[in-house]
Each structure stands twice: as C-alpha cells, then as structure tokens.
Amino acid sequence: MIGPTTTRRSLGAIAALVSGAALLSAAGPGPDLTAEHPAEETDAESQERFVGMAPYRGYLEAHAGVEEPPRLAGGPVEMSVSQRSGGVHVALPAQRELDPDVFGTPELPRAFGGTPGINGLPPGGRNASGGQWTTSKSMTPFGDEAVVMGNGRLKLEATDVSAVDAASSEDEVTFRASWEDEAGNTYAVECCQMLATRGVEYPTFGGVVTNHILHGSSRIGTALMPTEFTYLAFWGMGRVLKNGEVQQAPRLVHGMLTEYVRGEGYELTGDAGVTPTRKHFHLMVPPMMPDREEGRFHHSNVETGFTLPNDKPLPFWHVMFGNVDIQSTRGG
Fold first, then answer.
1. pLDDT at position 38, please?
2. Do residues 179 and 150 make contact, with C-beta atoms less than 8 angstroms apart?
3. Using CA atoms, how far apart are residues 223 and 217, in angstroms rounded to an integer?
C-alpha cells in the first residue's frame, strides 16, 4: 500500500489552512456588495440573486416534462472504466487559482451565476490584485493540495442512450470505487441507486453523457475545474462507506473520465495547462445536495469518515484515479 504523501504542503499545514478559512461550499463566499447592487440588499439576498442567475435554467425548464427523450445519434455508447491497483490522489481543501479564461477579470467578470462552488463563483468570493482575479477567498475541493492513498480500485459500467435531460432516461450506471489510508481503513463510494435524469442548475443529459466538454467555461458543473473534454460522465444518487459500513445515503455522486488536468506537483491547471493526450478519472461527492423544488443546491457535508490532523472531518470526496483501463463500443 502506498503511504500518504501530500503535494506541496504537509497534512498539518493543510489542517492549519482549513481551520483558518471557511470551506467555500460550507458557507459560501460573501456577496459582492458593490455599487451595481441595491444598497439595501442583504448578504443572503445577494447570494440568492447569484443562485438565480444559473445560466441553464431556461434550457432545463424546456426538458423537465419530456417522458421519452431522443436517443443519441449513431446509437448508444457503452463504456467500461476500471483500476485494479495503484494509488489515488485524494483532494484536500484548498483555495483555487482563478483562470482568467474562465472567470474573466474584475472589470468583466464571468462564471458568477449559480450556487457558489458547485456552479459559479460570485465576484465577492474572489481575491483580486493588479486588475486580475487571483484565488477564491474560501477553501474549495478544487485546488493543488492532495494526499496519496493506496489500493485504489475502480469499476464503472455505463451506457449512454438518452441524448438530453428529461423526466426519464434509458441511461445506466453501475459504479464502485475504493481506496485505503495508511491506517488500513477502506473508503468506498457506490452508485447509482438513481440517476439524475435532468439537472438542477446545469444539464446532466439523462444521467450519463459521453464525448462532451464539461466544467470551466462550459458552465456544466463547477467552473472551478478547468474546461475539459470528457469521454464519459455521470450524475446520480449513491452511498458513502467506510470499512464496509454505510456512512451516508443517498449522496450526490459525480464521476467523469477526462483529459488530464494536473500539472507539475499535481497542481490543478488552468485551461492552457490541460493535457489532451492523457486521461484520468475523477470521483466527486460534493458537500452539496440538489433541491429540485427550489432549483438549486444546498450545503450538506459528506460524512467521509476521514479526519484531518486538526480533528476536523474532510467534508467531501474528490478522488482521482490515474491507472485506468478503458473499453468502449458504440451502436446497437
């Protein structure tokens, strides 16, 4: 088993950061109370206004009642992704460097609508210097800090049939991933008890999507990840386990096989640093849960069972698998 190591900082240093800054997805960034906002607007009202600006709301409304969605042109895509051995990188809370290609500038900001962290990032949640955005003000699941854990295993069988968001879908996913810490504890995530056949703030394409651009400037998923070509992605409800015992269920689970988006020292790149010729798989169990009635996400820490050195629990899973085997077929 590979013993835990961190990139760039020790776990103790990460713990100090966590204790000194609020996790973005836990409290959300403060609103941008500039002259562009009504003077009487409260922090909560400002944040609600940004949530209401999620860019796909009209598109999702148009697909909400579709009972028999069209199928993919060319027929269904079936894909299998697996990892049988090797380590995984488990992301730790970190401030995210803000790519101007995705977030624009303080003069012309981009990517600010939607629930903070899981979708957009309001200008009030960004640090700026010299006329440029620099980093998120709060800690996020998306950054340069990670710990390596051993015995990483992954098995995904997915079928992409339905082309668009709808009230029902023919898409299918069977997923299980696991890894171990240095004490021998085994963590696992399983999915999907139910697929997210339509999105809350951005499309999910019936629950499974293949051969599509996600994240970054696409605004499909968090803009805090780079814009990345995605061979396969899914969204659904699953469960989180530790040593074989269920910690939480149901939990929102997102997985995707993408271009490689890590650089030197395992830093999370901007768009210009993406490596198109490499692939890796990301597992995300965010500290958010969807609320379909309100059309937004609400904060909800994940009970991961993993504790940081400052005795604070890790409130999300963002796990990356780099030793994957991939098989796919189309048609039928």
1. 42
2. yes
3. 7
Q: Assess contact for 136 and 119: CB atoms under 8 A.
A: no
Residue (of 218, 328, 325, 236) closest to 274 by Cα position: 218
First to last CA, the chain: 41
Q: Which residues make Cβ contacts (< 8 Å) with residue 18, sequence separation at least 6? A: 92, 93, 139, 308, 310, 312
- Written as six digits, the tokens of 39 are 């003077």
Spatial CA neighbour of 152 closest among 90, 91, 88, 92: 88
With contact defined as beta carbons under 8 Å apart, do 191 and 310 qualify? no
Q: DSSP for 109-152, please give it.
A: B-S--SSTTTS---GGGEEEETTEEEEESSBBSSSS-EEEEEEE
Residues 6+ apart with CB under 8 A from 268: 96, 97, 142, 143, 144, 225, 226, 261, 262
Do residues 195 and 177 touch, judged by C-beta distance below 8 A? no
The Cα–Cα gap between 98 and 105 comes to 10
Cβ within 8 Å of residue 178, ≥6 positions away: 151, 152, 153, 186, 187, 188, 189
Instruction: State how far the Cα of 305 lies from the Cα of 243, in Å rounded to an integer.
Output: 10
Query: Do you know the residue count of the chain?
Result: 332
Residue whose pair of structure tokens reads 């814009």 in the numeric block: 227
**Nearest CA among 322, 326, 264 for reference residue 148:** 322
Segment 293-309, tens digit of pLDDT: 888 999 999 999 999 87
Host H or E run for residue 80:
strand 77-83
Measured distance CA(90)–CA(283) in Å, rounded: 9
Which residue ranges of the chain lie beneath pLDDT 70?
1-43, 332
Token pair listed for 17: 């950061």
Token couple for 201 = 């703030």
pLDDT for residue 47:
78
Residue found under tokens 């206004």 = 49
Q: What is the pLDDT at residue 46?
A: 76
Residue matched to tokens 């993919």: 72
Do strands 288-291 and 296-299 pair parallel, antiparallel, or not at all (unpaired)? antiparallel
The three-state secondary structure class of 54 is coil
